[in-house]
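Mods, move this if it's the wrong board.
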Amino acid sequence: MKILCAVDESEFSLWALEGVGKLFRHSMKELVLLHVVDPRILKGGGARPKKDEPSTKDISKKLEAAGQKVLVDRAHRMDVILSQATTKPFTALKTVLVKGHAADAIITFAENNQPDLVVVGSRGLNDLPGYLLGSLSRTVLTHGPCSVLTVKGQFDVPVSVLIALDGSKPSKFAANRVKEWLSPDAVTLQLVSVVPDMLTDVSQKVLPKSRLKALVAPLRQQAQESLDQYRELFLKEGFQVTGKRLQGNPREEIVEAVPACHAQLVVMGSKGLTGVERFTMGSVSQWVSAYAPSSVLVVRH
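Not the wrong board. Structure tokens:
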């Protein structure tokens, strides 16, 4: 597994690093720490510097030096995190400094280097040595070429992971990625599948209750079958897992399930069912990433 982690000096960046170590230490083979220096902050108002003020070139060199210092510090912290494992995993650790707009630079680097996962903090610095991660996490999630983990806080091991299932191929792919990427020793799993009730919202005034029940019944059956299938799969792999079927608006139900399940991480597919099933996981994933109080991993096929 190859991971790209955007870093700066913020605590969110450190939480992201810690999360990578706690969640993926058993599957991670290569980790790239990426720091972006945005040259736009040097432009200011366009006025020439005064005689005693440092030139733009001097400031640029200082920014690059500060960025390299950040990378050295974060690489050292990552070494410490990995060394705490009973058996230290083999992970190739690389550091990269690039210039450009933070979100664009991360996306371009990911497109060129094809990691399995991009990790960003939900917020970051907004001063000269760093860059604002808060605004870029949504951009990376929307336009990034691979799966994206948005870290919003610290993780406690075992990490309580909520997996949203809807029976679609992307949803199944996300569940399979959890099985491949995460270790039973590091996480506990809670599966949820939401039966959308939008059909009843439109039809309740014209259709009898028996007909409405007949329309929803296949969705309930599909949700339960998906829960049973993946609960059995994860149990065979040694995971501690529970499952629960919910009903309502998928994005709202998933967000509300996070505190109810004490979940630290939500895992979702990047797209889901469309059309009559009304379970569009693509829009749901962005909503959950924005409003869930926990970190969110959106798995892209």
